[in-house]
Amino acid sequence: MERVSEIINKIYLKYLPIVKKLGITLDIDFPDTTLTIREKERVERDIDKTVRSAVSRTKNNGRIVITVRPGKIIVTDNGTILSKTTCELLSTEHVEVKSRVGFGTTVTIK
């Protein structure tokens, strides 16, 4: 079992200098830093891929939030708008993608 906080911290520190240069806010909502997971590599890969995608599509003054709750990690951004078809294609057994015009995209990693 791995602590989720270690994964989130690693990804946060990786992208913080990038988002600062781009004028994007990167926030973490993580009330329980004691949470653990079994599939560290898969979860880390999914979070990294999701944050990278959000950073590439979010404009100056945009916001990306990584939220951690028991059993799921949610990455939201206000810069990406995806079609319903694209959301369905990107969703898998472990990842659910939703997007709304005016709100951005939410990726839930289970």
**Backbone shape:** globular
**And the CATH topology?**
Heat Shock Protein 90
- CATH homolog superfamily: Histidine kinase-like ATPase, C-terminal domain
**Which CATH first-tier class would you pick?**
Alpha Beta
Secondary structure tally, helices:
3
What is the end-to-end distance?
Answer: 15 Å
* Global Rg: 13 Å
Total beta strands:
7
Number of domains: 1
Largest beta-sheet details: 5 strands, mixed
What is the mean pLDDT?
93
- Percentage of residues assigned to helices: 40-55%
Strand content: 25-35%
CATH architecture: 2-Layer Sandwich
Instruction: Supply the helix-strand structural class.
Output: alpha+beta
**Order of neighbouring strands in the sheet with most strands:** 2-4-5-7-6
Low-confidence parts:
none
Your description of this structure?
The chain is α+β, with helices and mostly antiparallel strands and 110 residues long. It has helices at 4-22, 40-57, 84-90, and strands at residues 2-3, 25-29, 36-37, 63-69, 72-77, 95-100, 104-109. It has one domain (2-109): Heat Shock Protein 90 (2-Layer Sandwich). The protein is built from three helices and seven strands, in the order βαββαββαββ. Strand 6 (95-100) and strand 7 form a beta hairpin. 25% of the residues are buried.
Which features does this protein show?
single chain; 110 residues; alpha+beta; Heat Shock Protein 90; two-stranded antiparallel ribbon; 3 helices; 40% helix; 31% strand
In short:
By secondary structure, the protein is of the alpha+beta class. The chain is built from 3 helices and 7 strands; from the N terminus they run βαββαββαββ. It has helices at 4-22, 40-57, 84-90, and strands at residues 2-3, 25-29, 36-37, 63-69, 72-77, 95-100, 104-109.
